[in-house]
C-alpha cells in the first residue's frame, strides 16, 4: 500500500513538473519523422496480465524487425537517438505508473515472446510485482544495445546471457524490495541519466 502511494505521488508530481518538457519532446518527435508521437507495445505485467507500455516513439513507423535494439539501429530516428541516449523516451511511462499498470521501481516489463522463455520459478517471482520504469538490472544493463551489437547473434546473446542475468537481478530485487531500496534505485537512475 505504501509503495502504491509512493508511486502515485511521485508519478503525478513528475507528470505535472515535466509537462512543458513532455510537450516539447512530443512536438520534436512529431516534426522529426512521420508517425504517432507515442510508441505502444504489449508487455507482460503483474501476475502475467498483458498491458500496453507507452514511450516516445524513437523509430520509424516501418520498424519491423527484432524486438530488441542492437547498436546503431537504422530504424532509430534523429530525435530518437537523443531521446534514447538520455532515456527521455521512457518518460511517458509515468502515465503507466499513475494508472496502475507499472511502478516507478520494479522488474522491467518484457514482451510476451521472451516471457514465455522465463524459467517457471523466476517467472513466478518476477511477475508477482508491478513492472517498473527502472530497477537494478536496468542500471546494470544501461548499455545493453551496445553489448548486443558486439555479439555474433544478438538475439541469442539476449536470450541466453542477458535475459537470465536480468531475471536473477530482478528476482533478487523482488525478494528484498523496500521503499528505501526503491529510493536508492531512483536516485541511482537519475544519476545515470547522462547521454
Describe the structure.
With 195 residues, the protein is mainly α. The protein has one domain. The chain contains 10 helices and 4 strands. It has helices at 2-17, 19-32, 78-85, 93-98, 112-115, 120-126, 136-140, 144-149, 154-176, 179-191, and strands spanning 38-44, 50-56, 103-105, 132-134. The strands form 2 sheets. It has a two-stranded antiparallel sheet with strand order 1-2. The protein has a two-stranded parallel ribbon with strand order 3-4. Helix 6 packs across helix 9 (154-176). The radius of gyration is 16 Å and the shape is globular. The relative contact order is 0.15. The model has no long low-confidence stretch (mean pLDDT 91). One of its GO terms (molecular function) is phosphotransferase activity, for other substituted phosphate groups. InterPro entries: Bact_transf. It comes from Roseateles asaccharophilus. This is Lipopolysaccharide/colanic/teichoic acid biosynthesis glycosyltransferase. Keywords: Transferase.
Rg from alpha-carbon coordinates: 16 Å
Order of helices and strands: HHEEHHEHHEHHHH
Q: Going across the major beta sheet, what is the strand order?
A: 1-2
Helix count, per DSSP?
10
The end-to-end span amounts to 35 Å
Mean pLDDT: 91
Amino acid at each position: 500500500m505504501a509503495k502504491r502511494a509512493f508511486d502515485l505521488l511521485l508519478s503525478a508530481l513528475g507528470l505535472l513538473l515535466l509537462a512543458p518538457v513532455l510537450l516539447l519532446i512530443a512536438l520534436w518527435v512529431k516534426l522529426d519523422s512521420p508517425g504517432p508521437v507515442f510508441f505502444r507495445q504489449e508487455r507482460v505485467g503483474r501476475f502475467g496480465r498483458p498491458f500496453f507500455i507507452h514511450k516516445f516513439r524513437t523509430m520509424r513507423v516501418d520498424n519491423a524487425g527484432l524486438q530488441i535494439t542492437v547498436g546503431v539501429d537504422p530504424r532509430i530516428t534523429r530525435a530518437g537517438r537523443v531521446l534514447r541516449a538520455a532515456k527521455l523516451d521512457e518518460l511517458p511511462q509515468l502515465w503507466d505508473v499513475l494508472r496502475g499498470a507499472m511502478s516507478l521501481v520494479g522488474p522491467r516489463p518484457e514482451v510476451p515472446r521472451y516471457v514465455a522463455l522465463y524459467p517457471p520459478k523466476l517467472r513466478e517471482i518476477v511477475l508477482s510485482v508491478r513492472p517498473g520504469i527502472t530497477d537494478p538490472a536496468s542500471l546494470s544493463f544501461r548499455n545493453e544495445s551496445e553489448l548486443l551489437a558486439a555479439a555474433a547473434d544478438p538475439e541469442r546473446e539476449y536470450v541466453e546471457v542477458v535475459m537470465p542475468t536480468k531475471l536473477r537481478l530482478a528476482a533478487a530485487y523482488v525478494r528484498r524490495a523496500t521503499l528505501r531500496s526503491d529510493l536508492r534505485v531512483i536516485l541511482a537512475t537519475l544519476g545515470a541519466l547522462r547521454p
